[in-house]
Amino acid sequence: MLRVNAERLQDRLHQLSTVGATAGCGVTRLALTDEDRAGRDLLASWMHEARLTVRVDDLGNIIGRRAGTDESLPVLLGSHIDTVRNGGRYDGALGVLGALEVVETLNDAAITTSRPLEIVSWTNEEGVRFEPAMMSSGAVFGRFETAYVYGRADSDGLRFEDELRRIGYLGEPSNRPDAAAAYLELHIEQGPVLENAGKPVGIVDGIVGITWSEVTWTGQADHAGPSPMPLRRDALGAAARLVTAVEEIGTREGHPAVATVGRIVVEPNVINTIPGRVVMSVDFRSLDNEGLDRMMLQLEDKVRGIGYRTGVDGTVVRFWTSEPTVFAKPVIDAIAAAIDELELPTHRLWSGAGHDAKYVADRAPSGMIFVRSQNGLSHCETEYSAPEDIEAGANVLLHATLTVAGAR
Amino acid sequence: MLRVNAERLQDRLHQLSTVGATAGCGVTRLALTDEDRAGRDLLASWMHEARLTVRVDDLGNIIGRRAGTDESLPVLLGSHIDTVRNGGRYDGALGVLGALEVVETLNDAAITTSRPLEIVSWTNEEGVRFEPAMMSSGAVFGRFETAYVYGRADSDGLRFEDELRRIGYLGEPSNRPDAAAAYLELHIEQGPVLENAGKPVGIVDGIVGITWSEVTWTGQADHAGPSPMPLRRDALGAAARLVTAVEEIGTREGHPAVATVGRIVVEPNVINTIPGRVVMSVDFRSLDNEGLDRMMLQLEDKVRGIGYRTGVDGTVVRFWTSEPTVFAKPVIDAIAAAIDELELPTHRLWSGAGHDAKYVADRAPSGMIFVRSQNGLSHCETEYSAPEDIEAGANVLLHATLTVAGAR
Question: How do the pLDDT tens digits run along chain B, 408 residues long?
Fold first, then answer.
């Protein structure tokens, strides 16, 4: 039975991880930085070595195409190579290099699939440097206007379009991935479910809905010394109460719903001044839209109550929502069949994190394969998946691809 | 009766406020920046115009000396011209330019005091760019070693000594202010006490004790989506609970004690990652050392309790303490006599903020005059004192100086 070359895959994961490597064995390769360019150059060179026809679209997505025996709709395999700040070596990279390993394995075995295969590396999945996340898969499949994406700016005011041009990856609109027969994305789980279940790979039923809000607290900056406690309007005092309230909202909603305050910006943020302004993020996730709306109602209620009690003005802006996605049954079935064939233990689960597969699913039957994450950790330097789990995941991707692309 | 030229003083306060001016009508003139250098150059030019003998010591303190009729110990008049980020136009500047106005008034009236007068502009009072605050008055009067001060670095790693040399204000140790007959510092109140009392100027009895601590929370950074609420070790969740606890500690201790969390740094501080590490400041102030110790004990207790309940490790480092200071009776009496003579309404109060006068008081009889602050605000762009209050404060400084320096 056909198997991937696990050593080659590990070697490439390692090589890519040296681009933007951090002292703590992680990776910082934010979208459209010099590190991202170096990572793209390396990926493109590997695509050429694998005899793929490489093209770049107007969003910087890199597509490597392998012809099929007939020119029907292609099967897309992909993920992303940008990372968060001090992120890990597998998040995103595994899906792109796993797809490349599938192609290399087919090359080695001289197998041509009926359908063409296209490996896609999506630009700016993480949404750390340029918000929102999954920006370019979203743009390709109609969620965002190109002009909107081009105008997004990082915290230094640098625009997406300018940075894309600067790193030399501004391609043609006609190069975008188009309609596809199926989309498969291999990814680390980024959570503890597979580890708790003791399973190396998971079949993903869908992606939870996510909504992001920004809460701004406006109090009164003042010298820390001479302002009596009862007269203060401390923006951080209000924000702290909301951090606790958000935690309670998530806990009350119950698994797999979660609620997180990940970012907080305090002004002026000096030791001897009462904070006058705080901007904080709120991230809610739920299996259904009703859950998201229920949590938002509670958030707005808490902001009103805390504002009333502290004398600090709070405003909530819900600026981004991603509805829950249910993956396509034929693709899920192909993944399940591959796992069966490979005689691997598995588990079905929902993804708590967003992935490019979510937007691709708007237009093409899509599915995801999860690989177990040690301690459930990701978006950190200690993100780790065991080589045998990665091998298992890549083999599942290989055989699911053979099914949906049709192998001779 | 002799009076300052209020218009000249206002004009100079305005001119100095244009150096580092912010869009919001405030000032950002952090210690040893290019803005600080420009402010120093302007001040030195005014000192020369006022026929003072100008010298700079090895801490960058600028001293302008006016000879007396006898060469006894001088009377020092001073404050600072550095500001916080987005600070105001009066904090510090008023004490230096008020002292300059006293000299100009004496020049205009051809009065020579018995004792020499020295105007001192102390380097880095605010402690925003280089911690701790009141760094150079502390170094001159034996609180800090010169090597310690020189080695302090800002958040970009730039050292105090290097930056002092860069801006051209690294002078000689022999130029430091020495023993003095008295020290007088005119300053805005930075609190609401005089405004609530309806008085333009205040006599300061002393300065509350201050202690600064840094609390570090170490949890586990993780992707916001797939981590179930009960399994999280969210460093910001722990920090938020401590912000509320610190507020309660200050409120329970009671006026004029206060407790403030002014700074909080979250890592990685991105919207979709559970914060793994938070560093936060805690500022406690009290009339006596016992009050500070009592608040510290409660802080340590709270950090232990929150750490236990959240699974996040908390450590407390108390890194700086400034004991309460009681000002010298003869200087307080001279200020009170000047206020009487000028027939001004007044109020006695404690300073909730630290000032250079605190360290000078270690070696010389010292006192402070406060000017009413509109809405009690300072360390912000809307810091404001009415021209008539500033004039009243400068006249009090003038007459208290005549008393302690001896006028013919």
Answer: 999 999 999 999 999 999 999 988 999 999 999 999 999 999 999 999 999 999 999 999 999 999 999 989 999 999 999 999 999 999 999 999 999 999 999 999 999 999 999 999 999 999 999 998 999 999 999 999 999 999 999 999 999 999 999 999 999 999 999 999 999 999 999 988 899 899 999 999 999 999 999 999 999 998 888 888 988 999 999 999 999 999 999 999 998 899 999 999 999 999 989 999 999 999 999 988 999 999 999 999 999 999 999 999 999 999 999 899 999 999 999 999 999 999 999 999 999 888 999 999 999 999 999 999 998 888 889 999 999 999 999 999 999 999 999 985
B198, B166: one domain: yes
Examine the fold and report which residue of B322, B348, B373 is the final residue of a domain before the chain moves on: B322
| Phi and psi angles of residue B273, each rounded to the nearest 5 degrees, phi first | -130, 135
Same structural domain for residues B227 and B296? yes
Partners of B225 on chain A (C-beta within 8 Å) are 190-191, 208, 210, 258, 285, 351-354
Instruction: Report yes or no on B1 lying in a domain.
Output: no
Q: How many CB pairs under 8 A join A and B?
A: 238
Give a yes or no: residue A76 inside a domain.
yes
d(CA A100, CA B275): 33
| Residue in B225, B241, B353 nearest the CB of A208 | B225
How is residue A135 written in tokens?
Answer: 């920006």
Q: Taken in order B341, B345, B348, B350, is the CA torsion positive or negative?
A: negative
Q: How many CB atoms lie within 10 A of CB B157?
A: 6
Residue A145 in any domain: the answer is yes
Amino acid letter at A383? E
Which of B85, B228, B237 is the closest to A270 by Cβ?
A: B85
Asked whether residue A191 falls in the same domain as residue A229, the answer is no
What CATH number is given to the structural domain containing A271? 3.30.70.360
Cβ separation A223–B275 shorter than 8 A:
no
Predicted TM-score of the model (pTM) = 0.70
Domain assignment of residue B201, yes or no: yes
- Do residue A289 and residue A393 come from a single domain? no
Is A118 strand, coil or helix?
Answer: strand
Closest to A190 in 3D by CA, of B86, B100, B226: B226
